[in-house]
Design goal:
It comes from Christiangramia gaetbulicola. Its cofactor is Zn(2+). Homodimer. It holds the Pfam family DnaJ_CXXCXGXG. The protein has about 375 residues and is α+β, with helices and mostly antiparallel strands. It is built from nine helices and 15 strands. Strand 4 and strand 5 form a beta hairpin. The longest helix has 17 residues. It is elongated. The structure holds zinc ion.
Length: about 375
């Protein structure tokens, strides 16, 4: 069982924002790694408090936590189990201590903020427009992307400001007394390296713009507005940094005859009076090409024919949706004299009197069926 966030901070469930902030500030100072070097228990408490504050200090997250407990944050995002790293924690501090306290910190385990940081290149964003066939079956798109790459011939030297450590240590006076804090070196951005020589035409970071064809695998079942990530295909970072990501926003093109609803597709089929009475066969669009379907004689307007598995593959990989064909019997809007005579004669005919059987479900019953 995970500990209760309120208990960790030692506040009541109805504590105000100010009380929560104050409580966290106290805990953070008490368990700050600079004050408790090598104390694993303190480190643990420091992280737990930060995690608790991350949730309780945010109105939206707190409301979720109050309703669902720790489950609210499981599987995704931070907090599934001490998911905050030290950088996250220190980025909170600006909020709590009003700046001047943030940045990294020194001499703590070496595994967290200490030492060099690898700079990360910026992310790139593109939109990819897909038709329904591509979405239904998944596809691979080759897209030309302009990204910044390291110019060949760029050489690096050790940063003279931080001597390659990536950090600048300073002593500050805080409410705790003198504390040694370290922050990333601003000269080299924390990488510990500076550009020595770079070729002409490259920017201050030794990067040049280059067009590249990136192959993007689109899984079946994506939806308009979804975002895919292609790792490492954003802009390069200078030096030993890691490249950013390419973020791909999915756009769904409208299909001329198929409408999507989740994994199901809908198709409106219009047939004539005669076809409804005599039966017919018609070719309809599907995401895997045209398909001929049979319409039985005596079909009722509003009937829905379900073509199983002719919909969209589920994005989770669980099966496929269906294609629902809605049969609409088209009523002529104008009639010739002869046609009028015909219908007038048929008006009294017994065969033309509505006589729904149990199998001719009403429209509403069909809709109910479809969603059950
Ligand atoms: Zn530096």
């Amino acid at each position: 069982m995970k500990e209760d966030y309120y208990e960790i901070l030692g506040v009541s469930k109805d504590a105000s924002v100010a009380e929560i902030k104050k409580a966290y500030r106290k805990k953070a100072l008490k368990y700050h790694p600079d004050k408790n070097p090598g104390d694993a228990k303190a480190e643990d408490m420091f992280k737990k408090s930060a995690e608790a504050y991350e949730v309780l200090g945010n109105q939206e997250k707190r409301a979720k936590y109050d309703r669902f407990g720790h489950q609210a944050f499981e599987g995704g995002g931070f907090g599934g189990g001490g998911g905050m790293n030290m950088d996250d924690i220190f980025s909170q501090f600006g909020d709590i201590f009003g700046g001047g306290f943030g940045g990294g910190f020194s001499g703590f385990g070496g595994g967290f903020g200490g030492g060099q940081r690898r700079a990360k290149g910026s992310n790139l964003r593109i939109r990819v427009s897909l038709n329904l066939e591509e979405i239904a079956n998944g596809c691979e798109k080759k897209i030309k992307v302009k990204r910044k790459v390291q110019a060949s011939g760029t050489t690096y030297k050790t940063c003279s400001t931080c001597n390659g450590t990536g950090q600048v240590t300073r002593v500050t006076n805080t409410i705790l007394g003198r504390m040694q804090t370290a922050s990333p070196c601003t000269t080299c951005g924390g990488s510990g390296q500076m550009i020595d020589k770079k070729p002409e035409g490259s920017d201050a970071q030794g990067l040049v713009m280059q067009e590249e064809t990136v192959s993007i695998k689109i899984p079946a079942g994506v939806e308009d507005g979804m975002q895919l990530k292609v790792s490492g295909k954003g802009n390069d970072a200078p030096g030993n940094g890691i490249p950013g990501d390419l973020l791909v926003a999915i756009e769904e093109k409208e299909h001329p005859s198929l409408q999507r609803e989740g994994d199901n597709l809908h198709y409106d089929l219009y047939i004539s009076y005669s076809e409804a009475a005599l039966g017919t066969s018609r070719e309809i669009d599907t995401v895997t090409g045209k398909v001929r379907i049979k319409i039985e004689e005596g079909v009722q307007s509003g009937k829905i024919l379900r073509l199983r598995g002719k919909g969209i593959s589920s994005i989770n990989g669980y099966g496929k949706g269906d294609l629902l064909v809605h049969v609409n019997v088209w009523t002529p809007k104008t009639l010739s004299r002869e046609q009028k005579d015909f219908f007038e004669r048929m008006a009294e005919d017994e065969n033309f009197q509505p006589n729904p059987e149990k199998s001719d479900k009403s429209f509403f019953e069909k809709v109910k069926d479809m969603f059950s």
